[in-house]
TrEMBL record, chain A:
<dbReference type="InterPro" id="IPR022712">
    <property type="entry name" value="Beta_Casp"/>
</dbReference>
<protein>
    <recommendedName>
        <fullName>Integrator complex subunit 11</fullName>
    </recommendedName>
</protein>
<dbReference type="GO" id="GO:0004521">
    <property type="term" value="F:RNA endonuclease activity"/>
</dbReference>
<dbReference type="Pfam" id="PF16661">
    <property type="entry name" value="Lactamase_B_6"/>
</dbReference>
<dbReference type="GO" id="GO:0043484">
    <property type="term" value="P:regulation of RNA splicing"/>
</dbReference>
<dbReference type="Pfam" id="PF21386">
    <property type="entry name" value="IntS11_C"/>
</dbReference>
<dbReference type="GO" id="GO:0005737">
    <property type="term" value="C:cytoplasm"/>
</dbReference>
<dbReference type="Pfam" id="PF10996">
    <property type="entry name" value="Beta-Casp"/>
</dbReference>
<dbReference type="GO" id="GO:0005634">
    <property type="term" value="C:nucleus"/>
</dbReference>
TrEMBL record, chain B:
<dbReference type="GO" id="GO:0160240">
    <property type="term" value="P:RNA polymerase II transcription initiation surveillance"/>
</dbReference>
<dbReference type="InterPro" id="IPR036866">
    <property type="entry name" value="RibonucZ/Hydroxyglut_hydro"/>
</dbReference>
<keyword id="KW-0963">Cytoplasm</keyword>
<dbReference type="InterPro" id="IPR001279">
    <property type="entry name" value="Metallo-B-lactamas"/>
</dbReference>
<keyword id="KW-0539">Nucleus</keyword>
<dbReference type="Pfam" id="PF16661">
    <property type="entry name" value="Lactamase_B_6"/>
</dbReference>
<dbReference type="GO" id="GO:0032039">
    <property type="term" value="C:integrator complex"/>
</dbReference>
<dbReference type="Pfam" id="PF21382">
    <property type="entry name" value="IntS9_C"/>
</dbReference>
<dbReference type="GO" id="GO:0034472">
    <property type="term" value="P:snRNA 3'-end processing"/>
</dbReference>
Amino acid sequence: MPEIKVTPLGAGQDVGRSCILVSIGGKNIMLDCGMHMGYNDDRRFPDFSYITQNGRLTDFLDCVIISHFHLDHCGALPYMSEMVGYDGPIYMTHPTKAICPILLEDFRKITVDKKGETNFFTSQMIKDCMKKVIPLNLHQTVQVDDELEIKAYYAGHVLGAAMVHIKVGSESVVYTGDYNMTPDRHLGAAWIDKCRPDILISESTYATTIRDSKRCRERDFLKKVHESIERGGKVLIPVFALGRAQELCILLETFWERMNLKAPIYFSTGLTEKANHYYKLFITWTNQKIRKTFVQRNMFEFKHIKAFDRSYADNPGPMVVFATPGMLHAGQSLQIFKKWAGNEKNMVIMPGYCVQGTIGHKILNGQRKLEMEGRATLDVKLQVEYMSFSAHADAKGIMQLIRMAEPRNMLLVHGEAVKMEFLKGKIEQEFSIDCYMPANGETTTVTTNPSVPVDISLNLLKREMALGGPLPDPKKPRTMHGTLIMKENSLKLVSSEQALKELGLNEHQLRFTCHVQLQDPHSDADTLHRIYTHLKSVLKGYTIQHLPDGTVIVESIVIKVSSSAEDSNTKVLLLSWSYQDEDLGSFLSSLLKKGLPSGIC
Amino acid sequence: MKLYCLSGHPTLPCNVLKFKSTTIMLDCGLDTTSVLNFLPLPLVHSPRLSKLPGWVSKDGTINLEKELKECAGRVFVDAQPEFCLPERELLDLSTIDVILISNYHCMMALPYITEHTGFTGTVYATEPTLQIGRLLMEELVNFMERVPKAQSATSWKNKEIRRMLPGPLKDAVDVWMWKRCYSMQEVNSALSKVQLVGYSQKVELFGAVQVSPLSSGYSLGSSNWIIQSHHEKVSYVSGSSLLTTHPQPMDQSSLKNSDVLILTGLTQMPTANPDGMLGEFCSNLAMTIRAGGNVLVPCYSSGVIYDLLECLYQFIESANLGTTPFYFISPIANSSLEFSQIFAEWLCHNKQTKVYLPEPPFPHAELIQTNKLKHYPSIHGDFSSEFRQPCVVFTGHPSLRFGDVVHFMELWGKSSLNTIIFTEPDFSYLDALAPYQPLAMKCVYCPIDTRLNFHQVSKLLKEVQPLHVVCPEQYTQPPLTQSHRSDLMLELQPPPMPYRRCSVLNLPFRRRYERIYILPELANSLVPSEIKPGVSVATVSALLHSKDNKHTLQSVPKPPPMPPSKKRKRVIEEPPVALAPKPMLSGAVALEAFLATLQKHGITEVKVEETADGHILHLQAEDTLIQLEEDGTHIVCDSEPLRTTLRDLVLRFLQKL
């Protein structure tokens, strides 16, 4: 039985360093190659030694696919390709290909330049790694090799995020990456067709959450920002440079315009300007409304939002600052947080998920005293708010995707074990399919049962179809008979006659003849006629002919009558049939041996 | 399989392919050359045009002065211009399942096909094709509706009258089929039927056929199409280019192994080299400006104009044209320039790399930013106040019959300082200029047609090796004006099948196989036997299911056990129900081995007699004859148990098929 194997190297019952290995139809595919934000040691990257202990991965992987540009999905890519060693194809969408190297470079700078780590990938390695990338277009079927094909679907979540359908022969797997089933202010909703994969590998970040409507959340967010500004406070919104940031900018920009607010909004880091440029150039990846109106008004040209300078943080008066990174684990957002944390008028709004170990995660869990580097502690007095703006599907959304794709099995990754357990139960109950949630390094094996594609001769097919009448009746299936020829890699189903011809074989005729003695005091001709009448009454639905040359033919069985030399009342019947009519011939010979019923004339 | 040809225009094709159970329209190009027979539609009242004399037949019997006007020896229809539509009578358009669009120039007849015809199918196109196609339709409608002409002219179409008319009008074909432009409402309705596809996306049609667009390298989002089932493949090649311009390069290898290749949309200017033309364009432009004249470039609002602007971007400084204003005037000028920048996926590699930086892929963004290029929706409004001369104006329509270009012809035509440079190959420039004669302005003809030329296409065909090629008849002979140029035609073996408007071709196809799926349960139950090294056979008896053009085979369910019959006697008399017919047999029964087998089964008294074709075995104790021959075995035996034993022994020696 063919099998599909799935092994998470990261994101198994966890969020962070997504990296999932899939073996399907003899092909090995790596899905995502991310880093973990919560660790600074070896656990930061997936454990590639699982694939091979010694050396390069090229021989063990047929391709690598990156779902989107977030670092927990692509952060380990240069390490994997350049330091561990992989020269095969890496697939990602155009926006991901554009943005991913910038985030990687940013990550590298923070790690190497600020934290002083050595033995990390270099700028050159990022460049070399990106040279191995082959861009993917949505819905394009990419033939990785003769057997392996992949196809990307729109996933929402962030610009360029994709779900991917992987197919070998008739077996297939869908990997969702991160996705979002409700459109937001700048992106559309994920969509997939009814592709019925053997396994659907889905993220499950919000496995237990069913979120209220987006509108309510937006209203809440604006209200909180507005209140804080009104009382002269400063609002810090830690974000990642691309993604949520743009959505919230659009939101604030329109709100500022409507309410005629004057407080400044800043966006930190030079990345921003650039980031907005990406949105303008990849506008086809945004939602329908933005796409439709971009010629008249480009939503990514902001009037109220200005670039931030480090010195502004000490300016008096209210302000809103978007700063990177989003989990307060390093960089500018952390610096500003430290500055503002002591004032209860201020507010920090965490608009997304925070990985365990980050400051973001700590303050969201209510921690009010933080240990900083150098044994200093930081008192957190400002208001801490959490608004779930990260664009992940919630439980409802995950169920909706299952309904869309109709998978045979479900596999959850990118979530917390407890939450997964809950969702697993729900899925198994509602869809009656198996749901798996392997931990890192644990392999899930699913046996598939693919049907075998065969080429059928059109003559044979048409003959069989014609038997069923002009309109095939689905309730009345038709039986068909043929010969399957297996030659090299081809499977052909043809009629037996054609099989003989194609294989250059002679037909071997097997015939049987048997004599049956019968007491029947009539002339030969009358006896034959009585046999004819008898058979007519017994064999309904068979072709029976009485030929003038003194034979009766049932289908292809020949029956002749002659009188015995000794006794003219004893008739000798001669039956002759071919092997193809064996059942009928055998039946007739035993039937006639019993003699003719007296009732017939 | 049949091909219905609804258009005779080789670069604006409209064909319908009937393949398996589907009806597929390939492109619906609109032949706009018919508008050359009409008088231009001026945006501003033109005293010259309104003073043209009406036409009266020589003998004075026929007076059509309201409908027809004369200018410089030619006669023009004074009414809203009409287009030559694809044939609508050859087949019922409501039976079309899908329409495949290859590029935005080849979809302009779409509203005529999808609206008011009962069409209920789906149109497939790439996103750039849809968006730019929409813009071009919008522009066309705008050009027409901006200058409404209440008058419709039909008297001239009368056959008797047409016989007496001069020049091209007399020879115009299918004039009764000509139609006025559609409305915006019809455009929107037609385009709402479009479903977007990406390159190499596989789209299943009714489970019977798979269609897939391939990059054709001609324009943004332009595609060729593969139409295939598991065993047959048709390639449809429409406007394609191998030159390095802005679009993604042409995908040639996917066209390999086609049974039939339908070839349309070759260059209309086989003797003009696009690069040479581009050079001439630049030098003429610079010369005119230096002499203080204006340059008019009648062009479509998308396509080659992007390349012209890119070329000028590099040329402006070196030619000292830094201060010359460049104007692009069209109701869709802004949209066209904006849209060109957002289709990174559909661009050539160089341009994609720019987007990764992130920078706009086309340099016209910089020309706009630095105010060197300005765009306006029309000559009215801002343009009239900001307009400075000498200047360069890009504007439509290239037929010179409608759009803002008409105004500039009237404005600049009288001065020999000015130059009009034709870059679009769709219209004969002499015909285009006819209603403006006499004309003082200089005319330069540098048609830029990047589509495949005959040399490129024969190389391509050699590589992809289709079994048969179908093409417009124009490609099977040299152009009329250059009848000695046998290099300007397709020479293939076997010769291409030519088509013309209204042809119905039977495509040479022999479908022999179809895909069927054997369900796992049945597959596991099959018993293959090897009959030659590497070749195995298995007999299959199975239930055939056919649904949505997909066929599957599954095991025959075992018949339910017979209920114990009360009348045992009758059971015997039930004739056998043939569940599975006996297989065919092959091979031969070897005498020695067979005798040995018989012996093992206790049949020892066998008399063997040699005959011409084999042997006769006489089983003396059993009074049974077995005739063994190369291609047959005949068992003559009256005892049923013995007969079945012998049968099974013989079968051991034979292969079952």
